[in-house]
Amino acid sequence: MTGATPLMVVDGSGVVVRWSRRAREIWLRSDSEAVGRTALTMVAPDTGDTGTSDSGNGDSGQGAGAGTGTGTGTGTGTGTGTQPGSGPLVIHDAGGNPVDLRVKVVPLSDGAVAWGVFEADGAVPEGTRTAVFDILRANTHEAFFVLDSELRVLSVNEAACALCDLKADNALDRPVADVCRPSRRQEFEGVLRGVLTGDTSVTDYVVRLGPLDDSSPERFAKLSAFPLNNARGLVVSMTEVTQTMRTTRRLEALGSVRERVGRSLDVVTTCQELVDALVPGFADIAVVEVVDAVVRGEDPPLSPLGRDIPLRRAAFRNGTPSPMAQAYPVGDVRALPTPTPYSQVLSDLEPRAVALDSGTPWLDADPERARAIRASGARLLLTAPLALRGAVLGLLNLYRVRPSDAFDENDVSVAHELATHTALSLDNARRYTHEHTVAAALQRHLLPPEPPSQTAIEFAPLHVPAAAGAGTWYDAFGLPGARTAMAIGEVSGSGIDAATTMGQLRTVIHSLAALDLEPDELLARLNDAVVRLAHERAALPPSDPLHQQPLSASCVYAVHDPLHGICVMASAGHPAPVVAHPGGAVHMTEIPAGPVLGSRDGPPFATASVPMPDGSVLALRTTSFPVSDGSDGDRSNLLREALSRLDRPLRDVRDDILYRLRDTSGHRDVLLLLARTRAFPPDQVATWTLDSVPAAAAAARHHARKRLGLWRVSEETAFATELIVSELVTNALRYGAPPIRLRLIKDSTLTCEVRDAGGAAPRLRHARTVDEGGRGLFICAQMSHNWGIRYSSQGKTIWTEQTLP
């Protein structure tokens, strides 16, 4: 016999009175299912071999021995023999399936008529189900459970006993959930019942097991379940993978942080990326607090952090159902209380894991934080510094609510690594914020704070800065002859370099505008300047970041002449302006497309003249300005709707456009310059056509003196103007060609213009003492604060400007 323990014990009437663990494995029946039942219902003799014995006839109808013989396939005759019997049996398990088994039946001398049924030596053929289970039980480290249809334990191996910290006798005939103690019992039992009812296997299902005691950590096991015997039972194998799961969780946290944190160059967004990467996988609650100066892009303070240095709560994520888990709202700024683990971490820059309970003394230093911790049920804290090269950027706090899920040394090490990676990302974001702040300040100083509204034009600019802007600009300034120049453009790139380049281009435009160039010629010369700047950038060392950034720009330049009621404009790869007329018509101007600035070849720049009646509005915009608001299916034109109502102040029109903007969170500034034309007062302009005779100079002085008297110009200014008019008309008579025209314009300055049809270019000379002439332009330059020459297809115009008191 294979052992001294019988498979079962049967009394004299053939009823099972004792049931062994080995019998549970063979018949897949628990004690309650077998004890008290007749053995005949579970075994039957093989019809091919009825069995024999040394004495008696083994007939199945003779007394107690006959009863036992019937139950085991062999008998002892009258029930008084002492020789055991053996023979092949057809044994059926709980599902009615045959089991190949050889047994020996011997009487038991325990004071009552009873028979013990033992396994015969060498009786179980290799490859049968019970043999396989024996081999697995003896040679594997996996925990094995044999369960009945009610999920009660029929058999376990030593590994299962070790996993559940129970002896085999204490595990048998108990619900497997009581034995294994899963954290989610209903889910665990639901998986096993699914195997029973669906007759399908489950493999590598991760089960969270409760701790063995209060001081033990939570455990994990991989479960595989296989149905047996028409879903009347199942075999479950479990392997503890606690360390593997913890390692996997740590690796997943590291991978998630490396993948998700640092994608943004915004400090607050980076902090939110961190908590999103850690909750709920690595922690139940995560809080990131950043030194407030770091959010603004300033240099972080060195450790140890001073008690009065405030931290801003930059990010929070709660994976627990408690809505009261947050002590302070995101954005709250306050200094950390001391002494606490948080202040200690920012003092020695060493992460630490701390247990939280009602008796934790340092919680009294921060009542609000203590309230939130108790409300969330957090029992464990891991706090790590966000520090870099000894400088403190912030603090990472991680909480877990399950006491058994304690932070170990490996978790602390991983948290330190996560914090270091995040600190690098935060420092990059801080540096970017600092650079953007400098670039934005530089842009603000380079842009006109408010374009000067002149007599014949009114401005209303709209500027929505972007996070990566500083390369866009607009400008508006006066030109001689009551004209106004307007420009808007963009430079490739962003940050300080773009702002600096923008300032250079704006200065070049002012310098070229002083030469009184036509818009197309001005853009051609501006393009030459951009080409030179691009060449200088390409000549930088390869290590310089600007070396890899090609330089290009776009621009629209327009000149409004209120005395002629037109606006002449040209474009260099920039969107055309929009014009709205008082009658309600709104249209986009048709400007010949010119190449972007920085192009070495391409079509020449060309101008377009647009009529601008009094009350018209010209809208110059950057490429980032949305053409439509997208508020309806037709994507109606944003500017068209806003500019259709011009019967209101221009600032109200500007505000209406701003309120219609839906999304201005792009990478470029949104710029819009609105300009409304107004009629120039006719009594502030005087024009005379002069005869080409020597007496024209005297006539010009007479006209000027009379008009200046009507304008109540001071005697000193009037005297200087008469002298300027005399010299300019004399030069036109001597070197120019008729017709000659004199025009005086009184605006914020006094402008004197003399126009002739000649093409000769006058120049300023410094005459010697003995020279009798050559002092005309020199005198004009000395008597005025500005002068210049403007050329056109009809000739040239020499002008001067004088300041008025």
Written account of the structure:
With 805 residues, this protein is an alpha+beta fold. The protein contains 21 helices and 32 strands. The strands form six sheets. Strands 2-1-6-5-4-3 form a six-stranded antiparallel β-sheet, covered by helices on one side. It has a six-stranded antiparallel β-sheet with strand order 14-13-12-17-16-15, with helices on both faces. Strands 8-7-11-10-9 form a five-stranded antiparallel β-sheet, sandwiched between helices. Strand 1 (8-11) and strand 2 (16-19) form a beta hairpin. The chain starts with 7 loop residues before the first strand and ends with a strand. The relative contact order is 0.05. Residues 45-88, 122-129, 629-636 and 767-774 have low confidence and may be disordered.
Average of the residue pLDDT scores? 82
Q: Tell me the structural class.
A: alpha+beta
Binned strand content: 25-35%
Number of strands: 32
Which overall shape is indicated by the principal axes computed on the Cα atoms?
A: elongated
Largest sheet: 6 strands, antiparallel
The poorly predicted ranges are 45-88, 122-129, 629-636, 767-774
Question: Distance between the terminal alpha carbons, to the nearest Å?
Answer: 130 Å
What is the topology, as strand order, of the major beta sheet? 2-1-6-5-4-3
The tally of helices reads 21
